[in-house]
Amino acid sequence: xxxxxxxxxxxxxxxxxxxxxxxxxxxxxxxxxxxxxxxxxxxxxxxxxxxxxxxxxxxxxxxxxxxxxxxxxxxxxxxxxxxxxxxxxxxxxxxxxxxxxxxxxxxxxxxxxxxxxxxxxxxxxxxxxxxxxxxxxxxxxxxxxxxxxxxxxxxxxxxxxxxxxxxxxxxxxxxxxxxxxxxxxxxxxxxxxxxxxxxxxxxxxxxxxxxxxxxxxxxxxxxxxxxxxxxxxxxxxxxxxxxxxxxxxxxxxxxxxxxxxxxxxxxxxxxxxxxxxxxxxxxxxxxxxxxxxxxxxxxxxxxxxxxxxxxxxxxxxxxxxxxxxxxxxxxxxxxxxxxxxxxxxxxxxxxxxxxxxxxxxxxxxxxxxxxxxxxxxxxxxxxxxxxxxxxxxxxxxxxxxxxxxxxxxxxxxxxxxxxxxxxxxxxxxxxxxxxxxxxxxxxxxxxxxxxxxxxxxxxxxxxxxxxxxxxxxxxxxxxxxxxxxxxxxxxxxxxx
Length: 496
Hints:
Blueprint: E1 2-5, E2 16-25, E3 34-35, E4 64-66, E5 68-71, E6 74-77, E7 90-96, H1 100-103, E8 110-119, E9 137-139, E10 149-153, E11 160-169, E12 177-182, H2 193-196, E13 201-205, E14 215-216, E15 228-230, E16 239-242, E17 245-249, E18 258-259, E19 275-282, E20 289-294, E21 304-309, E22 312-317, E23 320-327, E24 333-342, E25 346-352, E26 355-356, E27 361-362, E28 373-375, E29 378-379, E30 386-387, E31 395-402, H3 408-418, E32 423-425, E33 429-430, E34 435-442, E35 453-454, E36 456-459, E37 462-471, E38 493-494
Antiparallel strand pairs: 1-36, 2-34, 2-37, 3-6, 4-34, 5-6, 7-12, 7-32, 7-33, 8-11, 9-12, 10-11, 13-31, 14-15, 15-18, 16-17, 17-31, 18-28, 19-24, 19-31, 20-21, 20-28, 21-22, 22-23, 24-25, 25-26, 25-27, 29-30, 35-38
């Protein structure tokens, strides 16, 4: 937006006249400037600077300025502060609801917590971001400190799923926030998946690789032996969408599973080590099978497993099984958790959709070290065979393994985050202040002068209002109107 000002004269006897220009952005971040005329107004010229003093002769300063940047002869709307980088044109504040009321259990503080950000056409304008999402950035609440993130799915016509690690979420807070920045055509991708999953995650398998049907990557960035190998039953036809990103559908055949090998950091000792395994699953009614395990076909030798029976979640640790009492075989997506926690001895805890199910039971001691970790089944009498395959139609979106016992509040917050009930999107902000104003003193002691004509042109993408007030007091306390009551002056208007 550019404003060119021509000659303006006022008739007033030893009085004060103030002119205000009010600037605001209209629909784009391409903000122009306000440019003074080459011939100044009577005793005023729109230039840089700021003062409360009234000068004689040509006034080269403003009395008051807000949300504008000045250089000699120019005004531009100021860059918002703080702002991560002026190369990014837009941002949104995302507010976290970690209250007890939202979680359904007592809240607690979380450190290095992975939050799932779900973008869609209702809360995000894809046309302002790069087609591949390469300009997406996240910052902490200071609007400056960059955060680690991983784009799981990017879909400009639908839902996009992005994992972001939040350094700290306060206990029972609904004001903690972070920022999403976008709108930089020249930005390159800056994802850091292993940084997102740095808080004691031993493996994170999102089951959504769009380009590979045989390799299931570990996003936690652990040794390559923990990348899963999908057997022949897993094909492109197995890949589906879920409410938290990509997923796999299993088909009740013995080659329809994923082996993770025998990595040392997944060799959890049942009665001596705390750990947590969680997954997003969708089971048809009367489904059966094991969806995560390390063990053999002998129950006493099952180191750990999670499976479904009579439509309920079961977990087994060290050969000891426990029913969660929670129904998961209902054709709906559920977040399920196995937590091996030292509570007067190692005990099996289970959670469905953020809440504990069933009574904890002591873990067993059974261990078998020469069997693979399997997604979608369990090893049998040898490490070459598979048993307890998932029945047809079972869907799984992700599996995570942690070397700590996640707390109930962490589990509840995870469920809320991944079921799109943890974040509130605030309105889009542009990098420039959305409005600003400049106030100029004009003193004309030439009593016999006539009122002049105000001529200006307004080009670009910002809007402008020009208003004039007069009075005999420097603060215009004797003026009959406030600025809000003054009408906007059109270009070419005769003032008087």
